[in-house]
Design brief:
It is built from 17 helices and 23 strands. It is an alpha/beta fold. The protein has a 12-stranded mixed sheet.
Length: 597
């Protein structure tokens, strides 16, 4: 008796690709099996190839004329219909495994996969798995992903604007923190770089929010400059420096750090191994003052014994000392010749940066800002604890108020602090191996582009190459995968691909995927909102999935405005201070005091 699930027979085998000659008795359209209806020969659906004690599983990649083997095209047409299958795994006994241990033979039967078959693959709840949605073709079957592989092998969530990326991220993070309605991972540690300020409302009950201009129960976002990469800091503060000037400046920084390390005990600091890049506080104001003095100094005599100082400066107020200009020729006062680096322009830029209020979060970081002596009220342990050691599992760093010109430096600085701490502390209970960290990077194309040349790209490349061994995982979120650096995207082991309309973006995703499933990837332009193809290390099989939507009040503030509904409202009296105020405050939650709010 012919099984009702029979689709056809194997006609050709070429590596992991097989051509299946469709059974003549199979009618196109819908098959009713076990009281359930199944679409026959759908691209992206699964098939089963029995092999005695175990079954091979594959995905339909092509159907119709393009699936006909080249050799069969030369034969007399007999009305045969062909399907191309990509083999992806097998079930031995009751456990599903990716990869195959043997190939099918010619004329082996190929069967449609029923919900009972899918339940064998996806229905087993194993330790370390989270449910993120339902199979698109069988919504009674939950889709689980492996948390270990999702974090340690890195991942990417990619999709066009409006495809549901932000909602997918919110749903995924909630699933991790509340699997099956209860917190199964109480030591979860996730840091989310929120470029547009979308997630504070969506994740408020499971996350702490850090913002440049905090409101309510949000915390101030502060990034101590002295904990970031010193070379990148100088490039941001002063621009291009000659090699002698750079060396002289870093020598001054090293001397300040060394003096402070000798005067005060810093845990883990050995003065014999200290470098200018060691995360020890130093004052940028005092550095500027020390550097500006030799540039403008004059002397009463050519022997440079008595300075011609007219008025002392003030490092705290960034006021330079006042000297008379050098006299013409060989007349008093005489120009200074000692310690001159010819960096007046760079020092002017440095002063401008220090006085610019939009950089206060980094250059004047509250209790982490050192006094002129280098002493700071708070140190690195307090900073790391505020980001990584709070009672809530997620820390959201809201970067929506950050100037775009400093975004590369800021993201690079944040990742540098996190990675260096977790790397060197990897064997401690707080380290990355004992309590791994997942870093979610929204709008990654803005600072991880192919042509980007900054600290953010360098740090993310380091994380995706080395982070697995030290407990630091990356999740790249972008609407333009074609603009993401190739090295970074190629290291992502799991892809959640939402709707992608651009051909270049689709090609980039397809070339980066570990499974060569061109037919499945061709469905990217027609995916529904909130629907994605999940493939790679964390998924048992490449699958088309309906992502579970969070509740209405727990979704990111990135949904499209309801234009018709908004324009249909009657006009009311407007006050455009409500636009200029938030703009000037760099805070969308700014309240208009004139209205008593």
């Amino acid at each position: 008796m012919i099984a009702p699930t029979l689709l056809g027979h194997v006609g050709a085998v070429s590596g992991a690709t097989i051509s299946v000659r469709q059974f003549e008795g199979v009618a196109s359209g819908i098959a009713i099996i076990g009281g359930r209806s199944y679409r026959v020969g759908q691209v992206g659906s699964f098939v089963r190839i029995p092999q005695g004690y175990h079954d091979l599983y594959g995905i339909i990649a092509e159907v119709g004329a393009t699936a006909t083997p080249e050799a069969a095209k030369n034969l007399n047409s007999r009305g045969e219909r062909w399907t191309t299958i990509q083999l992806v795994g097998e079930i031995v006994d009751t456990a599903f495994e990716r990869g195959i241990s043997q190939y099918p033979a010619i004329n082996d039967e190929v069967h449609l996969v029923t919900e009972d078959d899918l339940a064998k693959i996806y229905g087993t709840a194993e330790m370390g798995q989270v449910i993120i949605g339902r199979l698109a073709g069988a919504e009674s079957i939950p889709v689980r992903i492996d948390l270990d592989r999702l974090v340690t092998r890195h991942s990417a969530v990619l999709g066009s604007t409006g495809s549901g990326k932000s909602t997918t991220i919110a749903s995924l993070l909630r699933a991790i923190n509340s699997p099956s309605g209860k917190s199964g991972f109480p030591s979860t540690r996730i840091l989310l770089l929120d470029i547009h300020g979308e997630y504070a409302t969506a994740l408020k009950n499971i996350a702490h929010v850090f913002r440049v201009s905090p409101s309510g129960d949000e915390k101030p976002l502060l990034i101590p400059y002295w904990a970031t990469d010193t070379t990148e800091l100088l490039a941001f503060m002063m621009g291009k420096l000659s090699d002698p000037a750079f060396t002289a400046i870093t020598d001054k920084i090293f001397a300040k750090k060394l003096q402070l390390a000798k005067d005060r005990k810093f845990d883990g600091i050995d003065v014999n191994s200290l470098t200018f890049d060691s995360p020890v506080p130093f004052s940028l104001k005092q550095l500027w003052f020390d550097l500006i003095d030799p540039e403008i100094k004059t002397w009463k005599e050519n022997t440079q014994v008595n300075s011609a100082l007219q008025k002392a400066g003030d490092a705290e107020k960034l006021t330079a000392p006042i000297y008379p200009l050098p006299g013409p020729g060989n007349t008093t006062p005489f120009a200074n010749k000692t310690g001159v680096l010819s960096i007046r322009r760079q020092l002017d830029q440095m002063k401008s940066r220090l006085l610019d209020r939009q950089y206060d979060f980094m250059l004047h970081p509250g209790d982490w800002e050192p006094a002129l002596s280098g002493e700071a009220k708070k140190d690195l342990p307090e900073l790391l604890e505020s980001w990584l050691g709070t009672e809530k599992p997620i820390s959201i760093l809201d970067l929506s108020g950050i100037p775009s010109g400093v975004l590369h430096h800021l993201v690079g600085g944040i990742l540098n602090i996190l990675y260096e701490a977790l790397f060197w502390g990897r064997e401690t209970p707080e380290g990355g191996r004992q309590r791994p960290l997942l870093v979610v990077m929204e709008e990654a194309h803005r600072y991880l582009g192919k042509d980007a040349d900054g600290p953010a790209k360098a740090m993310v490349q380091r994380i995706v190459k080395e982070g697995r061994k030290f407990g630091v995982g990356a999740m790249i979120v972008s609407q333009r995968p074609s603009e993401i650096d190739d090295t970074i995207l190629s290291q992502c082991g799991t892809f959640i691909a939402l709707r992608l309309s651009n051909t270049g973006d689709r090609n980039k995703v397809q070339s980066a995927l570990p499974d060569s499933l061109s037919g499945l990837m061709d469905s990217l332009p027609v995916l529904r909102t909130g629907e994605g193809i999940i493939a790679g290390e964390a998924a048992k099989l490449p699958i088309r999935c309906r992502i579970t939507l969070p509740p209405e009040d727990a979704r990111p503030s990135s949904e499209d405005p309801r234009v018709a509904q908004a324009w249909a409202k009657p006009r009311v009296k407007e006050d455009y201070v409500n636009l200029s105020g938030p703009w000037r405050a760099q805070n969308p939650k700014w309240k208009n005091g004139k209205k008593g709010k």
